[in-house]
Amino acid sequence: MEHLEANKRRVGEAAAALIRSGDVVGLGSGSTATYLVEALGRALAEGRVHGVQGVPTSRTTEALALQVGIPLIALPSEGVDIALDGADEVSPSLDAIKGLGGSLVREKIVAASARRFVLIADGSKRVGRLGELAPVPVEVVRFGWERTSSVVRALGCEPALRGGTAHPFVTDNGNLVLDCAVPAGFDATAFAAALGVIPGVVDHGLFLGMAHEALLADADGVARLERLPTP
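Given the sequence above, the corresponding structure tokens read:
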């Protein structure tokens, strides 16, 4: 466990080093992003960068950023210069599954607005194909969620209400999350497209073709991977 936290800290600090003075930064959510936010707060306090403004992707990140002295703004119409966020899985093509922390909609809005979107994770999140380790989170509105779940199930996955019906997990947007176990070899692009047209689905945790690069940390250090251009 200690080495896992050390890797998260290492990649969080490496991510903070990508931020330049004057940047508007999308601040991700989750355990790895916590180290990023803390490192950026130190950089600002020590004067190594200045004029940075953050756009948090969750209430938890917002609270931490304010605590460490990062000035925050709402997402501007022109987007952000760089967004840095964790991942639950990262494929060789830098497609990702995100959202096990429950902030996938805000994370995706900010990531899509970024001129440079960087995934940050420990090396254990690297997979050969999406769905190996993590379910696909799907945020759904509360109204009619059981019907929405049945339509999602018809796509060939097995959705489970996060937290269960007695104590369902509620996102910062006031919605519910279905964690969808997908079969081996599922077509992520087709699955994402099918989810996108289901009434009641707000968004999903498939981040396909979005990341420009990834920083992945293991015992040997931090590897920087770039998305290969589409042939």
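The mean pLDDT is 95. Try to locate this feature in the token string yourself.
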